[in-house]
Amino acid sequence: MFKLIIAIIRDSDSGAVLDALVAGNFRATRIATTGAFFRQGNTTLIIGVEAERVEAAIETIKGACGPAPTDGSHRATLFVLNTAKFEQI
User: Fold this and answer.
1) Which of 13, 31, 52, 84 is the most buried (most CB within 10 A)?
2) What is the pTM of this model?
3) How many CB atoms sit inside 10 A of residue 69's CB?
4) How far apart are CA 6 and CA 43, in angstroms?
5) In this model, does residue 37 exceed pLDDT 90?
6) What spatial distance separates the first Cα and last Cα of the chain, rounded to whole Å?
């Protein structure tokens, strides 16, 4: 069973997160995105992983993001979705 992680992270964290994911043997597709409310730059990562590696991927992302801001905002938003099929061609 495979899962799809969609991670929306701050641009300032994107390099560190991608480096950490690659070091952890995760593959990710990077998409430049913009937040609607503050119109700030974000990076959206699409990560396909085996179900048993989801928590490891999440911990890798958490560890690579900077500390949580004191203004109540957050560093990343993660969605974990079930996938019916996963295939690389």
Assistant:
1) 13
2) 0.87
3) 10
4) 10
5) no
6) 18
DSSP SS3 for 31: strand
Residue 8 scores a pLDDT above 90? yes
Pairwise CA distance, residues 58 & 12, whole Å? 18
pLDDT band at 39 (very low <50, low <70, confident <90, very high): low
| Residues near 30 by beta carbon (within 8 Å), at least 6 away in sequence | 14, 18, 43, 44, 45
C-alpha distances out from residue 11 to 34, 39, 73, Å: 10, 12, 14
What does the block give as tokens for 68? 């949580």
Secondary structure class of 81 (helix, strand, coil): strand
The domain limits of the chain are 2-67
Q: What CATH topology corresponds to 2-67?
A: Alpha-Beta Plaits (3.30.70)
Query: What type of residue sits at position 50?
Result: E
User: 51 is written with which tokens?
Assistant: 């179900």
Query: Token pair of 44, please?
Result: 């959206």
